[in-house]
Amino acid sequence: MKGKNVYRLFLVLVLSLFSFMAIEAQSPVRTTYIKGVVIDSLSREPLSYVAVFLKGSDKGLQTDENGRFEIQTKVNFINLQFSTLGYSSKEIFVNKGEANDIVVELVPTGVALKEVVVKPGKEHYSRKNNPAVAFVEKLMDRKDIYNPKNHDYYSYDKYEKMTFALNDFSEEQKEKWLFKKFQFIFDYLDTSEVSGKPILNVSVKEKLSKEFFRKSPASEKEYVTGIKRAGIDEIFDEESVQRFVDDVFREVDIFSNNVNILQNRFVSPLSRIGTRFYKYYLTDTVVVDGVRCVELSFSPFNNRSFGFLGRLYVVENDTSMFIKKVRLNVPKAINLNYVDNIFIEQNFEKASDGSRLKVKDDMVVEFSIIPSTQGLYARRNTTYRDFSFEQPASDSIFDMEGKVIESADAKFMPEQYWADNRMVPIREKENSISKLLAQLREVPVFYWTEKVISVLVSGYIPTGEQDSSKFDFGPMNTTISGNTVEGARFRVGGMTTANLNKHWFAKGYLAYGTKDEKLKYDAELEYSFTEKKYHAKEYPIHSLRIRHQYDVYQLGQQYMFTNMDNVFMAWKRQTNDKMTYRRLSELEYKKETVSGLSVTLGLKHQVQEATRWVPFYDGYGNWFDNYQQASVNLTLRYAPGEKFYDARFTRIPINLDAPVFVLSHTYSPKGLFNSRNTVNRTELSVQKRFWFSAFGYTDIILKAGKVWSQVSYPDLLLPNANLSYTIQPESYALMNAMEFVNDQYLSWDITYFANGALFNRIPLIKYMKLREVVSFKGLYGSLSDKNNPALNNNLLRFPANALCREMDKMPYMEMSVGLDNIFTILRVDYVWRLTYRDTPGVDKNGVRIALHFSF
């Protein structure tokens, strides 16, 4: 599994914490079934794409091309409401908790809109001469004119409340045997203000802040004055969880071309491609907050694409085309995982100069991992006030490092502060989560389930409670592995925590191979110049680290997001014996800034011991027991806006939207600590994800490197060969280890995830919610004469069994096509080797797999 996918599992694991409830916890509330057809009352012809809403709830859908619809719901609602262009809206009563089969007749209004009369019958939607299209085009033309960020300065106060709850959690479940020991949880049941369903709150986070914007030089800052949180997610790293939640539930801006939520891009109804993606209808005139507004409804042409069903309420007879209110849902058939429904509502007020001011932003998402089992309810409710276009009294806020600045006492504000400053009152049950969790943890089955999930996420087993464990064992996924040289490999290790010391940290491991019968070890001591909450990898790092290691070293197999001991990497497609035994001593200084810049300066000395698979001998016939090299390494990394989870063993990207630039140089003078060669090696890499709106995204990684001096092959540039059957970034699935050796190279790794752009349109296939993946990787390099051991007897010869070869004018290339989102979790690729197919002992094609969790 790629490391970056682990924390897309966050919501899955939150639900799993209550998995012992899931089978029996299905709500006994009776389900209402409704199916029917909507027809024209005069012609009796079916009406397609009629908006159907469950009045009193946030649920809605559209009739299909034959006028038919089906609803299965436990939601409390008043009536069914039907509306479409050219017909009078209609409400009908249905029997709750029963099966309903109905025929709905809509009466033509006979009223012309903008001189265009809509005729009854099956819809033949056209953009040409469509008053709704003309209307939305005017909205698009004016959407940037009244942007408050057109001012030199813009600021406002903001209150955000993020709630997670178990959804549709009825009190009638008290009688279930599974809840006999949990009767107290029903004292904490709440009711959703949006859907009206009973919910059990399991996490609530509040934040009070002030947002500042400056036009020139461009700068945006958020100064957080208060943070309050309680919930089951406290067993995870709270800062990392907050980054994940903020990324998944981003603030919606319908005035942009794309809406970024759930780590996907939805086409905005006001996008420049909106008229080609959506159907628009002028459906009604309504009063919103005392203001008469035109109701503009819209839906995507393809209801499986990443778009919205919704309505914009535009002030009537307003030349500025001011949008007063927005309501958004997603189509039921959308190719989106784990999501049952999304409801978004935004309200706007007009400033004295006409600028739009968002005063309310309410988002509700209902999740379920397995259909018809216990689901999760998530709500982000945000309120804004005290808007100003004046320059702040001091511009010092814009000089502070980072986009989000947290006051020193933000997490320690008294209850009275919250009572005085909350813009929306907190409900009693939302404020009782800490008490609920304390009672739950007294029940053994819950207590141990929580512990197991904590181990699965962190990879470590603590020796005490979270606030007292001084040493944690792990990572657990490296306990058992294997390779050709060592046979079965067993490893045990661990790390100290900030509960022992907030500045000093130690970690290490012992490993033993049953075949080579050698003991390996790794010991590391790190001093952090800043206090840490739990472990040394917490962002930002500012530390000095010393390390000594003795272990096997795999030439040409350095993975980006995992390590060689990962049990999932143990199954290889061919013999994995390109290894030496390496003694590594390292001293490293690292400094990270919140702006995304990091500097790493290291001193390294390594001794690689020869093995029968990788012997060291030169062209004169001299054999050497080892190969030594001492070096100075400098790495500059810049990733503005990068978001990641602070795992204890590595950094795991939450998304790949931020560009990442890495420049490194290694220098080693000949003779220093018996260094065999003078080494000057430079490498540069650039990584970025590019979105194509609802049509998916492309991840691009470009790398280049050059060795400027004469060196032996251990210090040349060895491309990463992936000998496992898993999909790994920045490595080649069909290349052999040490197959190519270069002293200069250019490589690319390009993967396009289409998000079902093709499959969403294929009958039958579209119901499987499969997604397309295409990948193209390549390497173009060369080996200069000065570094070719065949031409220089003083250089170490390539190992005979490695079958190393020089690249000719043709780059190495491989391509794959795959199916993603199989059962929502699996990606399967078929890979072709496009060049150098005549090389003996290589795989020309193959199947590769990966777990890929995404919405």
List the helices and strands and how they pair.
Layout (H helix, E strand, L loop, with lengths): L9 H7 L2 H4 L9 E9 L10 E4 L5 E3 L5 E6 L6 E4 L6 E3 L6 E8 L24 H12 L10 E15 L21 E3 L6 E17 L4 E13 L6 H11 L9 E4 L2 E4 L6 H4 E11 L2 E10 L8 E7 L7 E7 L9 E12 L5 E12 L7 E14 L15 E3 L8 H7 L11 H8 L3 H15 L2 E2 L8 E3 L6 E4 L3 E10 L7 E10 L5 E10 L13 E13 L24 E14 L4 E13 L6 E2 L5 E2 L1 E13 L5 E3 L4 E3 L6 E9 L10 E13 L5 E11 L36 E10 L17 E12 L29 E11 L3 E8 L11 E7 L4
Parallel strand pairs: 1-7, 11-21
Antiparallel strand pairs: 1-4, 2-3, 2-5, 5-6, 8-10, 8-20, 9-10, 10-11, 12-13, 14-15, 15-16, 16-17, 17-18, 18-19, 19-20, 22-23, 23-25, 24-25, 25-26, 26-27, 27-28, 28-29, 29-30, 30-33, 31-32, 33-36, 34-35, 36-37, 37-38, 38-39, 39-40, 40-41, 41-42, 42-43
How would you describe this structure in keywords?
twelve-stranded mixed β-sheet; disordered N terminus; 3 domains; 18-stranded antiparallel β-sheet; 855 residues; Immunoglobulin-like; Porin; mainly beta; single chain
What does this structure look like?
- One of its GO terms (molecular function) is carboxypeptidase activity.
- Pfam families: CarbopepD_reg_2 (PF13715), DUF5686 (PF18939).
- InterPro entries: CarboxyPept-like_regulatory, DUF5686.
- The chain starts with 9 loop residues before the first helix and ends with a strand.
- It has 855 residues and is mainly beta.
- The N terminus is likely disordered.
- It contains 8 helices and 43 strands.
- The chain is globular, with a radius of gyration of 30 Å.
